[in-house]
Amino acid sequence: MGASGARADGAVSADRTGAGATRLLFVCLGNICRSPTAEGVMRALVAREGLQDSIQLESAGTGAWHVGSAPDRRATAAALARGVTLQGRARQVTLEDFDDFDLLLAMDRENARELQQQAPGEQQRAKVRLLREFDPASAPRGSQAAAGDGLDVPDPYFGGAGGFDEVFELVQAACEGLLEQIRPSA
Question: What's the confidence (pLDDT) of residue 92?
């Protein structure tokens, strides 16, 4: 695990020494729509900035319905239309994830609550945040997951293609803000 994480004041500290990578886990319900989109967007941003050695990324779901499945074809299409590739197979969050990752970034309040309940201790609970907390246009700096009003990334699974486009745009803005907060200094 890297030496970064959530501080008591809600800010994110990142390893500035280069000794370890910042590890991020994006989490939604089934790990086939929103969290793989967030992982793909962040992976593209990290690659653009040349930070692959400093920031490590994965995604997971709180539920097990889609374990082993590829990202939803509609999420994949929305991402590809914007030059982002979604990779990997769905997996479920494990207890080890709370120690292995610096931040567990939930897509909505329901998933944040589930992660808070699964966390084995207070230190691990402090790592759970809503992804959209990092979108400068939607949340004041330092807001906490408990304050989550209006910070959900809506689940597009049962809707049309437009929902996947909206998810991409919301996730893009939040990931850009997140990268600004965790970017290692030169």
Answer: 98
Bridge partners of residue 22, in order along the sequence: 55
pLDDT at 142 over 60: no
3-state SS, residue 57: strand
Kindly report the CATH class assigned to 22-136+154-182. Answer: alpha beta
Ordered by start, the domain boundaries in the chain are 22-136+154-182
pLDDT one-digit tens code per residue, 53-89: 999 999 999 999 999 999 999 999 999 999 999 999 9
In this structure, are residues 37 and 78 in contact, taking their beta carbons and an 8 Å threshold?
A: yes
pTM: 0.87
Rounded Cα distance between 165 and 28, Å, is 17
Residues 6+ apart with CB under 8 A from 158: none
The residues that are catalytic are 28, 34, 155
Q: Is pLDDT at 3 greater than 60 in this prediction?
A: no
Integer Cα distance of 158 and 174 in angstroms = 23
Asked if 134 and 178 touch (Cβ cutoff 8 Å), the reply is: yes
181 backbone dihedrals φ, ψ, rounded to 5°:
-75, -30
Rounding to the nearest 10 degrees, give the CA dihedral for residues 59, 4, 167, 145.
110
